[in-house]
């Protein structure tokens, strides 16, 4: 399995930078068939749907009120509730 990968994220709840695990990517290959079936049903249907689209909000790139620490410093402070197996 190897060493777990981790990243730094700012937590609004803890008001500090926290270490989070990076998990493997999920497999979404089933979506193609699902979208094709939905598109086919939409083309064959006579229903009229609204075209309401919300604009994307203008968000700042970072919400943290403090500077990001180095990864090494964050990993040294990192504690987990679970034992390493």
UniProtKB/TrEMBL annotation:
- The segment annotated Disordered runs over 43-69
Instruction: Write down the superkingdom of origin.
Output: Eukaryota
Compositional bias, Pro residues, is annotated for 57-68
Its protein name is: Hypp6121 protein
Organism of origin = Branchiostoma lanceolatum
